[in-house]
Amino acid sequence: MDTGAGVEAAARRARHTRHVGAAGAHVRPVVAESWQRALDLGVDLARSATYVGHEPGHAAVAEADEVFDRFLAGADDLGCSVLLVDGDGVVRVRRDACPDLATLLDAVLVAPGFRIAEQDVATTASALVRATGRAARVDGPEHLHPDLACLAEAAAPVPSDSDADPQTVVVVAHLSAPGGGSALRAAVAAELARQIGEHVRDRAHRAGRLLHARFDDVCERSGAEWVVATDGRATLCSPGFRALPREDRDHLLDRALADAALAEPPPAGSTADLPSGRRDDVATSVVRDGGAVVGHVSAGRRCVGVPAGSRTTDAMRRQGSHVAPTARRDFAADFRDAHADGAAAEVRRRANRELLSPYLRARRDVATAVAARTRHLLLVGEPGVGKQTLAVEQFRRSHPTGTVQVLDCARIAESGGPLLPTVRGTDEDRPRLLVLRRLAMLGSVAARRLDESLRLLVSTPAAPTVVGCIDTPSVDATRPYGLLLRHFHDTVRVPALRYRADELGELARSVLHSLSGGRSLSLSMQVVRVLEGYAWPGNLRELEDVLRYVIARKPVGVVQAPDLPSSCFTGGAPRMSMLEAAQCDVIIQALYEARGNRYQAAELLGIARSSLYRKIDAFGISYIG
Q1: CATH code of the domain made up of 5-201
Q2: Contact 540/384 with Cβ under 8 angstroms?
């Protein structure tokens, strides 16, 4: 086995002939085998890594962030970069100690969101770890890809109790960099992998300890009537909470589970209308582990001045919000009533907030259902609104180690054996999500086959959470999929993108960042205004297509209006739907009541001023003084 020039010549011969053959005698056997696998997979050595995108909440990412940051804080003179690579070969985390090396890795696309598997860039240290299950190294010309021949890598697998998604730590340096060489890189990779493995194993126990500590602190210091805490898996309740009526406890538990599933800081204070008729002030605080939200603690007491017999329930409060009025509705009447109190104003603000933000309500309903793992959902909405993405995202937030299986109902054959072996999982202990795509495409025979399989599946002790997706704005029970409706407990309507104009700018920036691989690319305010004024008949899929077009034309810099496709400027203003008309009425009434003061109008509506400004622009509301 040769070194240096011999290995480099062997790599050139293998690249030229697309076969290892005699060239394998000049390299280590494990490297020669990797070369041959890559060539058999059809690797294109003229291209670099493939961008596949980021996955929020991916396993071990938070732990790797913490371990890598702590390591580089005391070892910034090593001249290396450290990476976390997942089981599919996708770089999930990268930290750099050398700016020059970071620039080089960016140039060859060894960056978060890019896949560096054998079919993409041929031999790498992480690929050898996946193939052998042991620590590995790849130095210089042992990289079959010519763009990587200047790098020296050492990698080690992250110890794990599960083989579902193996993680690998890679230490990369320039081949000419001074230091301890491959032995030092291998030792560093092994130690970092060990630390990440320990953090992952300790994650659930650490989060539980933090949740218990915050729960005890709130119980002692808040003086609340009741306290409930949850991390999505365990729930802690105070004696006062257990004394509440059962329907009130269920309502508050669903609310707490939704907060935990969303993994976001909740509002500082809010009001809960309970099924028994009481109204409570609720203060919610988050429990953090490092920078991640791992749990929520809610404490509450009865609102002052609300009679015990009051029956202003959520159902009564929402009546009229989703049906067409027979005459123009005065949405600000409660605020002009001299006898209206703060509680009534809060009820009106909540009703308006739900009317103006339908996607947030849908998101919360999905988060509650997938966190509880006991209710099956039917998601209804136009094609491309992100129904499957919403379900999978909320499931991943609640159950990071869970498994997701997607069944395309349009591909189910009209004949054949039962579908149960297809949809059943193998690990009964892990949370599972089964997504049924394109239910409306089912034929009669396929619907009966799927109905029989679901009937058996949902009756098992460790049944998955089932989410069905229908690509129509309404449900037609006369279609073949009507046979499956008995398996679902709730229906959630996911609004079309044109109803989310106030959040379209933020959504477009998020999609752009994901598609661009973290490059320096941003949207000008003029572009955001154009996007907000477009009807988006293709919803999120069309938005992604538009941004892919933009990235192809302008890979870096600030995107301006001329960079957008011409389709974004065609067509007249879309006709208002009933929902948009109701939202517009709410805003106009609030502006009249506030005498044109947008700050006060936002307070009346219970939404942020920035959201109000965007809706005023989207609806074309003129100045009201």
Answers
A1: 3.30.450.40
A2: yes
